[in-house]
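Look over this entry.
=====
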Amino acid sequence: MRIERVYIFGMALEPIVVFFLLGELGVLVALAIAYFLARYHKGTAHHYLMLAAFLADLLVFKPLMYSRAGTAWGAFPWDGTRIAPHLFVAALAGAIGVIDILLGFKYRVKKGPKMFMPPKGRLHRTLGLLFLAAWSVAFVIGLVIFLETWVP
């Protein structure tokens, strides 16, 4: 049995589109929780949750969404969408995220099962906030594209 459409909030969506929407919302929630874990000095939990969210987004959702967009919209650029700014900001967020993860590994301190960031890890903190801001902007632009595409 193949599901042709999923009805959510009055929209008839393809199942893969629902998967992307829920997946990106899940990544957003995971990034927000990871941010608060860092703020409350829960370094180990922050580390693993941030890595999981970042890798799921970069290695699962982004390639699948790009592949789907290429088959649905044809060759880039896709007229009538805000895809160019979205792709630029998403690529920027990805690059900042990779650099930030490397800095996180460079500056982290492990004592037993606990991890923490010493004061010299300030650059990791700053880039982490920049990553979250860029990722959030890309998410909002992507959400606008979603709404313009699927909401009548």
Q: What stands out?
A: The longest helix spans residues 43-73.
